[in-house]
Amino acid sequence: MEDQSSREYILELAREIGMVVFSSGNLDTSLGHLLTECLYLSPTQERALMRPLGTRAKIDTLLRLSKFAFDKAAQRKLVSSWCNRAKAKMDERNTVIHGTPGIYDGKIKLHLYSSSNAFEGKNEEWPKERVSGLFHAIVDLKRELETEIRPEFAVWIQAARKFHAEHWSGPQTPPVKSA
After folding, report:
1. Does 175 reside within a domain?
2. What share of the chain is helix, strand, coil (3-state, %, to 5)?
3. Strands (DSSP E) along the chain, which ranges?
4. Residue 1, in any domain of the structure
């Protein structure tokens, strides 16, 4: 059993938490780019409308958009399933990021304040393996967003571009391209 109070363990845990922060930011950016393309927003509109939204709000927006974009239940189900998993992982991410770490009984635990224990809090174990699992789950969600969800919206994106070209006489500003 690894000594969770050792400096090496704490540094590895901190690295894993940093990877969770980085990967969730990457997922947030990809969601913003997809929504920007779907709504055919200019760069100015993207900065004003997409960037201030939290990841959870972007996930909810994607889910709502899918109800308009897709006629097929299978497409809506794919997006709904992805959104539900993404929300759950973002809740876990918030737990890791906003929990107060401490060493209790020789193990690192996060002191959490959630709705069920809002006043007294509770300690929950988040060893580096669990944090690493969260990191990999978020990376997988981002991959699925790019390889499975984005292609489903391709027809919608083309229609938005066509509508914009036919009905907008102002400057043609392309949306932000995703990485």
Report:
1. no
2. 70, 10, 25
3. 100-104, 107-112, 122-125
4. no
- One digit per residue, pLDDT tens: the chain, 179 residues? 677 778 888 889 889 999 999 999 999 999 999 999 998 888 998 999 999 999 999 999 999 999 988 989 999 999 999 999 999 999 999 888 887 777 777 777 777 766 566 566 677 778 889 999 999 999 999 999 999 999 999 988 888 888 877 876 655 555 556 55
Q: Is residue 173 part of a domain?
A: no
Domain hosting residue 121, numbered range: 7-167
Question: What is the pTM for the complete model shown?
Answer: 0.84
2 occurs within a structural domain: no
Number of domains comprising the chain: 1
